[in-house]
Amino acid sequence: MHVTGRVEQGTPGALLPLRRPPAPPPDERLSDVDEWGRSEAARARLRRLFGPVYRNWFRAEWEGMEKIPASGGALLVANHAGAIPADAPVIMHGIEEELGRPVYGLADYLFRSMPVVGTAWARGGGVPAHPDNAYRLLREQQQLALVFPEGTKGTGKLVTQRYQLRRFGRGGFVEIAMRAGVPVVPIVVVGSEEAMPILAKSAAAARILGVPYVPLTANMLLFGPLGLVAYFPAKFKLRVLDPVYFDVPPDQERYRRSRVFDEAEAIRQAMQTNLYDMLRKRRSVWFG
Amino acid sequence: MGRRVLITGLGAFWGGHMARALEADPSVDVIVGIDTDDPSVQLERTEFVRCDDSYSILARLVRATQVDTVVHAGLVVNSALMPDRRLHEKNVIGTMNLLAALGADQSRVTNLVVKSSALVYGASMEDPTWFREETPRSRPPRTRMEKSLLEAEDYIRTFAEEFSSVKVAVLRFANVLGEDLVTLFSRALSLPLAPTIAGYDPQLQFVEQDDVVRAMEFCIRHELEGVYNVAGDGRLPWSEVRAIAGHPPLYISPVMTEMAAAALRRAGLITLPREALDLLRYGRGIDNRKLKRAGFEYRHTSAGAVRHFVETRRLRRVVGAQPAYRYEGDVESFFRRSPAVVHQPSP
What is the mean pLDDT of chain B? Predict the structure, then answer.
């Protein structure tokens, strides 16, 4: 029998006969999947695939990209729209190409339960939106994380309500940024609403399928089932607003509710104002 | 005076190896082990006492031996090893009897180390990527296995609150891999096809068997208190584990998985217990930094543990299971008991 347990032998009588273990060998890995399930190789493949769509279909145009910190953690906050929202891949793609640093997309854990989709989502930089995950990403690893505080309330709204920001959850994103000691960088997106507008919703079907909403999109009417992936070529314009720094100590157990709500509401107001401003200047949905 | 240690579950892998590790420590005076089955490893100076599943003789034993340290290594963490009834008896009733014995008036116990499992965190889609020791589980437990462990930990928590004079350490281990050990993953990787739920590639975490024994020893030596996660650094996807082991996947349906798994189990194609199915869907990560902060150093990362396991098995297939030193038992007993050996006092 191989002796496994008796590796620690020392001089008799010594109080701590712990032999110092040899330094662990470098972690040999076969894949480059990190602790979050993200793979830079998969991400690069995805960027190569999505690049032409980003440039030629959505023709994404940024304003104020330099406001996103080139190093250190930051919580990116954006408006969310379209039945199957294209804003997340556009924002992640743009920043990763431009700044050369990864963006982790915090999203509903519902993704994880879906076979194939869940794995692809994780390899492509999706992380379940759990406060612990956000803290570790932002505070300990100083990464960029992207959240949509409206959640599915934003993506599930009808075309008639486009660009009207929904409630920003319970302001949890502000509390996370405060605890992590990082700024919130708001990003407003114009174009995502028209890329896949929702004409009607079925609450009954959503209940049966156990998903937040089951939409009927204009894309489905035109292209049938293909409408699930066929986006309209709406022109994407993105504007980065000034980073919001909170003058509070990080790592607190809790922060004053009123302060959190006020900050969240202020950010929402700023984003709504900027959205209206961008819409005022937009001449065409398709050409910007 | 040296330590006097009682080990539960001596017949199982961990109890046996723990006893072995303690035998090598000269500051441990007495080692007593209890179990229903004979020890599987060769032991030198450990006294073995046979008992029933629920350890009903424990109170007398603790009183008679005057032990100061108890290693509760008898918790069963793989439901494939025994029927649910017996599992409950061993994990819940056994722990209850143990704690009752430790709390008795004549007990001199000051330290309790419990080998628990990361199974208490469960595995579900709402989970954080890393569980800290204080992170609650996301969903209530569904399997008897997890329920029994949670119940046992509950008893231990209450005991620790009630008896502040006893230092209680609960170690929650990630999935263990090791050459001499049967765990659900070592079994999953010993079949020609590795069971995989189609469409899922969970991120898993492992710990090497030596690190497990070392962690428990570390706990005893440093008299740690509280709950500690024990797992190798990092996580790796199941597809990568399969690639390291060189096993093609055996796909299980992502819908009605339990039924599909039951059929495959019956056909002898897989040996996965129920609690492993959630793990193969969502994976699990536990944050090992608390134990590291206490000073413990791991020898293997998660990926390193998988690699070590696979390489050792390859070697064994060629040269067989070779003991490190065949005559060790005799030699050790000579050094310990023979009048020819001159015992020098410790400096």
Answer: 89
